[in-house]
Write a structure and sequence with these properties.
Layout (H helix, E strand, L loop, with lengths): L7 H11 L12 E5 L2 E4 L4 E4 L2 H4 L8 H13 L11 H13 L6 E6 L2 H16 L3 E5 L8 H6 L3 H4 L10 E4 L13 H18 L6 E6 L13 H14 L2 E5 L23 E4 L10 E6 H4 L15 H16 L2 H22 L3 E7 L2 E6 L10 H13 L2 E2 L1 E3 L5 E4 L7 H17 L3
Parallel strand pairs: 3-13, 5-6, 5-7, 7-8, 8-9
Antiparallel strand pairs: 1-2, 2-3, 4-10, 9-10, 11-12, 12-15, 14-15
Helix pairs in contact: 3-11, 4-11, 8-9, 13-14
The protein binds pyridoxal-5'-phosphate.
Pyridoxal-5'-phosphate binds next to α5.
Length: 437
């Protein structure tokens, strides 16, 4: 047998030549294998993973139960195509999703491949159900890179610049950002003000009776892990009910235990009509879904929804294993204690560095805002990039976020061991110290 050994440098050069630069890379090394919260590259260097493939790996890399379920399915068949011949995995997963998502009404679930595809389909379904066209998302929201979801997304560069024209009838409503509230306002006054702004938006920008759906991330992900006040989320949900608008919770980044509950919307005492799920649903396999009220989901006629690869049996097998693991390993509870540990380290770093601004979290959805100085709260994108770069050159996979690129976010697998966490936090500390003013 010939053993070919390709070097990191060779692969980096090949990548540069053959893969367009439009796909960015946070880390320039080449993965060889991974388990739990550690990836080993082809040079045998270990990387502690605080990125989890952007929130995809709540159960960790290569969880043995996921691998076993996937292998078993691969042995049986890969893809009959659900609309050609049905299979058990799709049906069982639909049932499971209906059972574990909030809401005591009759539910159904339909499967797709990517997060953006789930959002697109939630909109198709809401439009058909309501007979209305307009779609409302929120400032700082992120819903994907297809034309429709790009239109709903806030950050112009890099997500939208030069990629228009965008989909019509998409409007972005105001969304509260407590850390950057006007300093003279109390929190309570600011929240009430933002609720007024939200309602005024439907006078100034789009009439509610033309709106099919409001799509909201319960915690804004790419926007910088912005956690809205419960009162605001409730006001949005009530407004939707009052005006016959379908309320869609985009749980693609927040779902599956990340925030300390199975779904983030459960923190806000509201029940969405529809929910989009993906990312950690299938532990790294491409799978997404729309789940919610049967009354809404069942409105489209046969052939109007779906897609060639939608609900791949292999991904469904992984997802069914993930849902079992969530319960067996008590991952939502683990998320809370993981979040507390990361927060404690950030509070410690804040004592030494004036550039550490807001530290916020819901469960293990933790973020820290990097600013010029905490008195000014002025975003510091450069320092954020330096911290993330240092981490990615020194053994820690770390991501930034935020409309202004000044948020470091944490999406470590919820199964991370104490040792992996300690090693990761030690590198994080070095990255912060390295960036001392
Ligand atoms: C909240 C949210 N919605 C939708 C998407 C799009 O998912 P995908 O990249 O799988 O299309 C993402 C991806 O980051 C997301 O965070």
């Amino acid at each position: 047998m010939t053993v070919s050994y390709v070097t990191t440098k060779e692969l980096q050069e090949k990548r540069e030549k053959y893969v367009p630069k439009g796909v960015s890379n946070g880390n320039l090394n080449i993965a060889h294998h991974a388990a739990g919260a550690t990836i080993t590259d082809i040079d045998q260097n270990e990387w502690i993973d605080f990125a989890g493939a952007i929130g995809t790996l709540n159960v960790g890399h290569s969880h043995p139960k996921v691998t076993e379920a996937v292998n078993k399915q691969v042995e049986k068949f890969l893809h009959p195509g659900f609309n050609v011949m049905m299979y058990e995995g799709y049906i069982n997963l639909a049932e499971k999703l209906c059972k574990i998502t909030p809401g005591s009404f009759e539910k159904q679930a339909i499967l797709f491949n990517s997060g953006a595809e789930a959002v697109e389909n939630a909109i198709k379904i809401a439009r058909r159900y309501t007979g209305r066209q307009a779609v409302v998302s929120f400032v700082r929201g992120y819903h994907g890179r297809t034309n429709m979801t790009m239109s709903m997304t806030s950050k112009v560069k890099p997500y939208k610049f030069g990629f228009g024209p965008f989909a019509p009838e998409v409007y972005q409503a105001p969304f509260p950002y407590l850390y950057h509230k006007p300093s003279e306002m109390t929190e309570e006054a600011y929240i009430d003000h933002m609720i007024e702004e939200f309602k005024d938006f439907f006078i100034a920008v789009v009439a509610p009776e033309t709106v099919a759906c409001v799509v909201m991330e319960p915690v804004q992900g790419e926007g910088g892990f912005i956690i809205p006040p419960q009162k605001f989320v409730k006001a949005v949900s009530d407004f939707c009910k009052e005006h016959g608008i379908v309320f869609v919770a985009d749980e693609i980044q927040t779902g599956f235990g990340r925030t300390g509950k199975l779904f983030a919307i459960e923190h806000f005492d509201v029940t969405p009509d529809l929910m989009t799920v993906s990312k950690s649903l299938a532990a790294g396999l491409p799978l997404s879904g729309v789940v919610g009220k049967s009354e809404i989901l069942n409105v489209a006629d046969p052939g109007e929804l779906g897609g060639t690869y939608s609900g791949s049996p292999v991904a469904c097998a992984a997802a069914l294993a993930v849902i079992d693991i969530m319960e067996e390993e008590n991952l939502p509870e683990k998320a809370e204690s993981l979040g507390q540990k990361i927060e404690a380290k950030l509070l410690d770093l804040a004592e030494r560095h004036d550039y550490v601004g807001d530290i916020r979290r819901l469960g293990a959805m933790v973020a820290v805002e990097i600013v010029d100085h905490r008195d000014s709260k002025r975003p510091d994108k450069k320092k954020t990039a330096d911290i993330v770069k240092f981490a990615n050159e020194n053994g820690l996979l770390l991501l930034s976020a935020g409309l202004k690129g000044n948020v470091v976010r944490f999406l470590a697998p919820l199964v991370i061991t104490d040792d992996e966490l300690a090693r990761g936090l030690a590198i994080l500390e070095k990255a912060f110290d390295h960036n001392q003013i």
